[in-house]
Amino acid sequence: MSKSNKMFADKAFELVKELERSSQTIPAFDDDGVRQVLEEIKAIFEENCAQAANYSTSGDRTLWPLLNFRHAALQRNKRCLLTYLHQRLQRIKALRWEFGPIVPSDIKVNLCEPEVTFFNKYSKSLASYMRSIGDGQGIDLTGDLRPPKSLYIEVRCVEDFGKFELEDGEVIYLKKNSQHYLPRSQVETLVRQGILQHIV
């Protein structure tokens, strides 16, 4: 086997390693690296096609190991490239959950155009789903990504609401600028509607 055969799939593997090592939320899309991997895949495929045609006519079984080796290199390149793209998409999905429907500009510059399109479509799908659940009122699934530390929260009333009855039958008056310590599960809707503000 030639010396160049030892280098098969190195660039593809390097793409995956660089993405994994990156301390950024999402590093810049490596256009050149992806292009090099695609060119290598094309070159390997063309070499194998030519050699397979030669094998068909000559029946020379000494070509068989090299054909298999190149095919394995081609498959590895494809797997590494798909892993690189998949991991980037997973990070892009995480951006929606962390930052909401608008990506900060310092992160957006690292996305290529198809990734920006994917983010926008994913964001619209998630928003549409969140509107469709919760008895027609919708539920913001991105609000509490971690379990609450306490069952009660302190809230401030942003506007006059009037009487509010808790599940235990206690009635409280929600007046503008009044503060209350209430069960989280019973006031989450009012917090989402902007009537109450969670005091952290």
Per CATH, the class of the largest domain reads: Mainly Alpha
CATH architecture of the largest domain: Up-down Bundle
Strand content: 5-15%
* Helix fraction bin: 55-70%
Distance between the amino and carboxyl termini: 66 Å
Oligomer: single chain
| Count of discrete domains | 2
* H and E order: HHHHHEEEEHE
Strands ordered across the widest β-sheet = 4-1-5
Question: Strand pairing plus helix content: what structural class?
Answer: mainly alpha
Outline the biggest β-sheet: 3 strands, antiparallel
Radius of gyration: 28 Å
| Uncertain residue ranges | 1-6
Number of helices: 6
What is the total tally of β strands?
A: 5
Mean pLDDT: 87
Task: Offer a concise description of the structure.
The chain contains six helices and five strands; from the N terminus they run H-H-H-H-H-E-E-E-E-H-E. It is mainly alpha-helical and 200 residues long. The protein is rod-shaped, with a radius of gyration of 28 Å.
